[in-house]
Amino acid sequence: MKTLKTWVTVPDNSDFSIYNLPFGIFSVNGDTPRAGIAIGKQIIDLAAISDLGLIAVNASYFRQRTLNEFISLGKKITNKVRLDVQRLLTVENSPLKNHSEVFVSQQDAKMYLPVHVGDYTDFYSSIEHATNVGKMFRDPENALLPNWRHIPVGYHGRASSIVVSGTDIRRPMGQVKTNDMEVPVFKASGNLDFELEMGFIVGKSTELGERISTQEAAEHIFGLVLFNDWSARDIQKWEYVPLGPFLGKSFASSMSPWIVTLEALEPFKVQGPEQQPEVLSYLKYEGENNYDIKLEVGMSSSTSEETTISKSNFKYMYWNMMQQLAHHTVNGCNINVGDVMASGTISGKDESSYGSLLEISWGGKKPFELKDGSARTFIEDNDTVTMRGFAEKDGKRVGFGQVTGTILPST
Ligand code: CA
Predict the structure, then answer these.
(1) What is the pLDDT of residues 322-378, one digit of tens each?
(2) Distance from residue 53's CA to the centre of ligand 1 (Å)
(3) Sorting pLDDT into bands at 50, 70 and 90, what band is 298?
(4) What rounded mean pLDDT belongs to the chain?
(5) pLDDT value at position 138?
(6) Which of 116, 129, 156, 328 is catalytic?
(7) Whole-angstrom distance, CA of residue 10 vs CA of residue 41
(8) Domains of the chain and CATH, by start
(9) HEC states along the chain?
(10) Cβ < 5 A residues, ion ligand 1
(11) What is the CA(390)–ligand 1 centre distance, in A?
């Protein structure tokens, strides 16, 4: 990776270094939401620099509530915009030095969901997570179902309830039936959980009937976000047979506001785990398709400051994004720009890397402590869950910021 130097002040540990330059939608003081790129503690207003004639995309693509139309221009153009901004932020005689009005402090900005999400798919691609859940929900001896090593298992989630980081989440109500009950009851979920995931944003649509190969898949991925797939375990446990997750998941999912492009993550590619048995030919891939992205989950409450409760890594994924996309379209199902495809909970091998409370508290049997000494198994009202993620190599850091959400009591 070539070393770049920007004339903008960027703190050493910033997720938004000159190597990153992620896209998002922001507004300031209640003005119109529009597209920007994050650098350090600031945002560059893309519409404003387009008005100055400094990038070759019309400002109308940036004066929008979502990035969908801009992303639809294709990678050739979106990559050029990112690289043009990178150049404007590094050259000595940059015209931007005389235009401080194109910079906005992130502190003053309100962030929005960066894309209109037409469809949302959630995979189940961490072998450690699937094994842990299988042990608890089904059979400790045969935790993985027979299809798991052959199919990147997934389900169609609910797009309408995806919210941007910082949005409060209401504890869901639903049907619950534990083993000691004769009949189900209607109540507030008592086993509310998070799922540490990453999601990718589709950047190139396909027609119905078209298939994407693992080799072509990267062309269809605009970038990645942090994703919290909130889950009500008690509702889920009662409802999920035979068709899978429904109301235990659809009440809300939270997404980080900045989309880190696949190109910015290129230097952090690593080899994925060995897949045994051998996968079918349409799922075979070449090269490095996993990404070394460090992830962590913090939990705080009205009485306790934030406690780190998990440290995981996106590189643990058994099935990679290219395989997920190839599988998703192998039957001819079309995809659209702005679709979100989430990884599934990202757990590692040891307990400190589990990506959900279901695993951390082992189904509620093993309470853990927050910093103030209060015990938790699942999420209580007014608890806040914050996920962070970044990649780093040779002192060069590309990060995602955070996705955070606070649970409010049910009504
Ligand atoms: Ca999930």
Answers:
(1) 999 999 999 999 999 999 999 999 999 999 999 999 999 999 999 999 999 999 999
(2) 43
(3) very high
(4) 97
(5) 84
(6) 129
(7) 7
(8) 23-112 (2.30.30.230), 120-408 (3.90.850.10)
(9) CCCCCCCCCCCCCCCECCCCCCEEEEEECCCCCEEEEEECCEEEEHHHHHHCCCCCCCHHHCCCCCCHHHHHCCHHHHHHHHHHHHHHCCCCCCHHHHCHHHEEEHHHEEEECCCCCCCEEEECCCHHHHHHHHHHHCCCCCCCCCCCCCCCCEEECCCCCEEECCCCEECCEEEECCCCCCCCEEEECCCEECEEEEEEEECCCCCCCCCCCCCCHHHHEEEEEEEECCEEHHHHHHHCCCCCCCHHHHCCEEECCCEEEHHHHHHHEECCCCCCCCCCHHHCCCCCCEECCEEEEEEECCCCCCEEEEEEEHHHCCCCHHHHHHHHHCCCCCCCCCCEEECCCCCCCCHHHCCEHHHHCCCCCCCEECCCCCEECCCCCCCEEEEEEEEEECCEEEEEEEEEEEEECCC
(10) 122, 195, 229
(11) 20
> What type of residue is 319?
W
Kindly tell me if the per-residue pLDDT of 177 is higher than 90.
yes
Percent of the chain exceeding pLDDT 90 equals 97
pLDDT at 309 over 90: yes
The pLDDT, as a whole number, for residue 139 is: 87
Is 156 catalytic? The answer is: no
At a CB cut-off of 8 Å and minimum separation 6, what does 273 contact?
A: 127, 290, 316, 318
- Residue located via tokens 């190839």: 326
Prediction pTM value: 0.98
List pLDDT tens digits, range 125-149: 999 999 999 998 888 899 999 999 9
pLDDT at 76: 98
Ligand 1 center–CA 54 separation, angstroms:
41
For residue 131, how far is its CA from the centre of ligand 1 (angstroms)? 14
Compute the distance from residue 225 Cα to the ligand 1 centre, in Å.
14
Q: What is the pLDDT of residue 137?
A: 83
The neighbouring-strand residues paired with 162 are 253
1 pLDDT more than 90: no
Instruction: Write out pLDDT tens, residues 30-45.
Output: 999 999 999 999 999 9
CA nearest neighbour of 231 among 197, 204, 264, 259: 197
Distance from residue 98's CA to the centre of ligand 1 (Å): 46
